[in-house]
Design brief:
Layout (H helix, E strand, L loop, with lengths): L7 H15 L10 H16 L3 H12 L3 H10 L17 H24 L8 H10 L4 H21 L7 H19 L4 H6 L3 H6 L18 H12 L5 H24 L6 H5 L5 H6 L1 H17 L8 H18 L1 H5 L8 H9 L7 H12 L24 H17 L9 H72 L2 H41 L4 H14 L13 E5 L11 E6 L6 H4 L42 H9 L3 E6 L16 H4 L1 H14 L7 E6 L1 H15 L3 H8 L1 E7 L7 H8 L1 H4 L3 H4 L6 H17 L3 E6 L3 E3 L2 E3 L4 H4 L5 E5 L15 H13 L10 H11 L4
Parallel strand pairs: 2-3, 2-4, 4-5, 5-6, 6-9
Antiparallel strand pairs: 1-3, 7-8
Length: 884
């Protein structure tokens, strides 16, 4: 159903006839995503009655083929730029046209003024009348900028889907992201209504015509530049408050009308499109059970349309489950880093299904049926939407591509153009094209392997060269030392001072060469260690990989981003050298009491299947153990022991993630508990952590703190100390803090400390526990100073609190109550988990993780051209380092 002018009544009649006569129905995913989005943009612009399309079109034709007018415009302008051609039916080209119009609009106004005053020849054409009327509008530049802002948001989607790639599995997610970004950017809906659109199903059911969902007009955002232009015009009294409100009302209606039209025939309203995401390689990795459920829905749909027999359903589901368990897990990194913007899904999946075609034959047939539905998301010139050169018949996608290639080859020949295209011709071209694609993939793999081998060869050659140089220096040192000793002995016998001088010169040479020798030995040792550390850095056990990655980062002093990571400070991202000039922000993680980098920030334990041999219940002894599950044993490759490193780094590839460790204990009976109470105080711990973080250049860029439990108190202490510090570098930590996230932080103390205080001689509470007393004056004072600091600097705060009791020893209790975990500033969410689990999201779809990502998106400054290519880059670098 390709195109917005499809006769839906005819389609329904055809479906009924096929069902009644042949027990068969057509698979439909609605109108082409490109066309429907183009038309939605058109309807949105038309609803405002701004006539931007007429203005941009007239602007081009006014000076097209009119040398005299072009010369007059050039005399008035400092540049030689002219309007670009605008095509009402090709809205993909909106951005450059609108940008050029804004760039030269001041010159256009001068031209109109000169014509109207008689200084330039009179122009009476329709195009000039439209431009002259637009030039008199007070807010025309703001309207053009808003039009440009919307066009820029649509551009990436239109470019991506202007392709012959099979993109249906990604269509629902990409459209949802586009709509959500537009709603949040332009603020056309009320905040609470917008938050309800948190899934594709909620988007499909949302009513964009209900006025109760609309935001107040004065809260609608136009664009960054548009808002600034409005401020200037209001300051100069060039626009009244009524003019501004009318403009914002039009902008609101532009977006809402566009989204309303989009959702009327949007492909994501079809269940088969929403469920097609089960063939997204990333979702196969992170949400295998959800993929199985989606495939089951697809099979039900196909059975209902009589496309497959119902008896095949169970077999296909079992094949998919086996594919997820065996193939996807074995190629975890490939599926995890798949990028549909760069790679073809059909080529990617085929290389895995083709390993055992017979085993997955029926499943692969379903995959092909779904991927073929993508043929409508294509370019007009090169695709299959309005291409009259192609025959109108039911061809598979590869057949369409082959036919297009044959037609283009015939045109290139330039002779006979009406050659009948046979099935044999298409099959021949299909085979050739597949061989070409396979060859490209093979060349890509060979290139990566060659780079790895070359790098290893260079390193080996460098080590060999250093070893040869070391051998020569050792020989020179040995000979020089022997000669020096011989000259000394001879000088003593002959009483000749010149011999002593020669001996001293040789000893000086020995000293210099010994220094060179020592440097070479250190260099050789370092280069050998790089290989070992690179191997360890890829270990699935983060107790091994994180220290190894930190050591590599400390050794890499040539890196533009080089920082020193002291003991207890771990780099979570990036784990490889990047070419980017600067990170956009630092995200610092600080654990709580008895926590650590290696276990505090893991995924929720309910998502991990432990074997009985290695399972350990938390708090199963009289005194609580550390917040850790020993051994990191897990039979699922989808489970993460560090979600900031594995999840958040993909969402924020341009930020640096650092985790800080510090020692804590709950009882003085612990043999490893520090005895110096001064070192255990919040002030001392905060100073200790701050000094280590300063060595890692924390404070040089925007900072977001993510803390759990006692870690939040430490960060509050760090910020209040930094704010009061007279040292510039320390003070920058406070100045550059742009956000804080608290997970179950006892701002007003914890009842756990009260339990320990009730039997102090038995439990011997440590200084850490004594500082957490409920209602502690020190904590309350710190909290008041912190709130003043946050309000003065307008820093956003996001907090989560527990609502379930935690098991400690033989009892269960609320460790941090809601009145203590709610700081009374910023956003607060109560989560139905215990104390240890508030900072352990179940998945990337959990409320804790999604709110964290939303918060970071609002806080962290991100340029418009930042694209998330970290996964692909990490894969490439990992392949290059694979020889270690």
């Amino acid at each position: 159903m390709d195109g917005p002018f499809v006769n839906w009544k005819f389609y329904e009649l055809l479906q009924n006839d096929l069902k009644n006569q042949h027990n068969f129905q057509i698979l439909c995913i609605g109108s082409c995503g490109l066309h429907i989005l183009n038309n939605s943009f058109k309807h949105g612009e038309k609803a405002t009655n701004w006539k931007i399309n007429s203005i941009l079109s007239s602007l081009y034709w006014l000076f097209k083929d009119a040398p005299a007018r072009r010369e007059d415009l050039m005399k008035l302008s400092s540049s030689e730029k002219f309007p670009l051609k605008f095509c009402c039916h090709r809205w993909l080209e909106n951005v450059p046209c609108a940008e050029r119009a804004l760039e030269i609009w001041a010159d256009i106004c001068k031209y109109v003024s000169k014509v109207d005053s008689g200084a330039l020849p009179k122009v009476t054409c329709k195009s000039y009348c439209i431009i002259a009327q637009a030039a008199k509008e007070k807010l025309i530049t703001v309207k053009l900028d808003f039009f440009l802002s919307v066009a820029k948001m649509l551009q990436p989607f239109l470019v991506l889907y202007q392709s012959d790639k099979p993109l249906v599995p990604f269509l629902a997610g990409d459209l949802f992201t586009l709509v959500k970004n537009m709603l949040e950017h332009f603020k056309v809906l009320k905040h609470d209504k917008c938050k309800r659109i948190d899934s594709i199903s909620s988007l499909c059911s949302f009513d964009f015509t209900d006025v109760t969902n609309f935001n107040c007009i004065d809260k609608v955002s136009i664009s960054f530049i548009g808002d600034e232009l409005l401020k200037k015009k209001r300051a100069k009294k060039e626009a009244s408050d009524k003019d501004v409100l009318d403009l914002k009302r039009d902008c609101q209606w532009f977006i809402l009308r566009m989204l309303q039209t989009l959702m009327e025939k949007c492909p994501i309203s079809y269940s088969i499109v929403r469920n097609a995401s089960c063939f997204d390689p990333n979702k196969m990795v992170f949400h295998p059970m959800r993929c199985l459920k989606s495939l089951k829905n697809i099979l039900s749909y196909l059975v209902d349309k009589s496309r497959i027999p119902s008896k095949d359903g169970d077999e296909i589901l079992l094949q998919f489950k086996e594919f997820l368990d065996k193939v996807v897990k074995c190629s975890f990194s490939d599926f995890k880093t798949f990028d549909h913007k760069e790679q073809r899904l059909d080529t990617f999946l085929y290389q895995y299904f083709s390993v055992d075609k017979e085993k997955y034959r029926k499943l692969w047939d379903i995959v092909k049926r779904i991927l073929i539905l993508s043929h409508g998301q294509a370019t007009v010139e090169r695709g299959f939407s309005l291409n009259k050169a192609l025959e109108v018949e039911n061809l598979k996608e590869n057949s369409y591509i082959a036919q297009r290639m044959i037609i283009e080859a015939i045109k290139e020949a330039g002779d006979v153009l009406d050659i009948p295209i046979t099935k044999e011709m298409r099959i021949s071209v299909q085979c050739a094209r597949q061989q070409y694609l396979d060859c490209l993939e093979c060349q890509k793999r060979e290139k990566i392997e060659e780079q790895s081998n070359n790098k290893r060869k260079l390193l080996v050659e460098e080590i060999d060269f250093l070893q040869a140089k070391r051998k020569c220096l050792e020989e020179d040192v040995k000979n020089a030392r022997q000669s020096s000793d011989a000259l000394t002995d001879e000088g003593e016998k002959k009483k000749d001072i010149s011999l002593f001088l020669k001996s001293n010169a040789l000893r000086k040479e020995v000293t210099e060469k010994s220094s060179q020798l020592k440097s070479i030995e250190e260099n050789i040792s370092k280069k050998r260690w790089i290989g070992i550390l690179a191997l360890w850095s890829k270990s699935p056990c983060i107790e091994v990989s994180l220290p190894a990655s930190k050591a590599l980062a400390n050794l890499d002093k040539d890196d533009f981003h080089h920082s020193f990571y002291d003991s207890g400070i771990y780099l979570l991202h990036p784990l490889i050298r990047t070419r980017k000039k600067e990170f956009c922000a630092d995200i610092v993680f600080v654990h709580g009491l008895l926590g650590a980098t290696f276990w505090t920030w893991r995924q929720h334990d309910s998502m991990k299947n432990f074997s009985d041999e290695h399972k350990q219940e938390e708090g199963n002894l009289n005194l609580p153990k550390r917040d850790v599950l020993k051994g990191n044993y897990c039979n699922s490759p989808f489970y993460t022991f560090c979600w900031p490193k594995d999840w958040l780094a993909i969402d924020f590839p341009d930020a640096r993630f650092i985790s800080a460790d510090y020692s804590t204990c709950i009882s003085k009976w612990k043999t490893n508990c520090p005895e110096q109470e001064e070192k255990d105080s919040l002030d001392a711990k905060a100073k200790y952590l701050m000094d280590k973080l300063l060595l890692s250049n924390i404070g040089e860029r925007p900072i977001v703190w993510i803390t759990h439990s006692m870690g939040g108190l430490l960060v509050k202490q760090i910020l209040t100390q930094a704010a009061a510090s007279t040292e510039k570098k320390t003070n920058l930590i406070a100045q550059n803090t742009i956000g804080l996230i608290f997970f179950s932080v006892p701002h007003k103390g914890s009842d756990l400390a009260k339990l320990f205080q009730s039997v102090p001689y038995i439990l011997q509470p440590s200084t850490d526990m004594e500082q957490l007393q409920k209602g502690s004056l020190k904590l309350l004072s710190l909290h008041e100073r912190f709130k003043s600091f946050v309000r003065e600097n307008n820093i956003p705060v996001l907090s989560f609190g527990e609502t379930k009791k935690s098991r400690w020893g033989l009892t269960s209790s609320m460790l941090v109550t809601e009145d203590s975990s709610d700081p009374g500033i910023g956003e607060y969410y109560a989560v139905p988990v215990d104390h240890l689990s508030t900072c352990k999201p179940e998945s990337t779809d959990s409320i804790v993780y999604t709110k964290t990502v939303e918060f970071l998106n609002c806080c962290i400054p991100r340029s418009s051209d930042m694209v998330q290519k970290y996964s692909k880059l990490e894969l490439e670098i990992s392949n290059i380092l694979c020889f270690f």
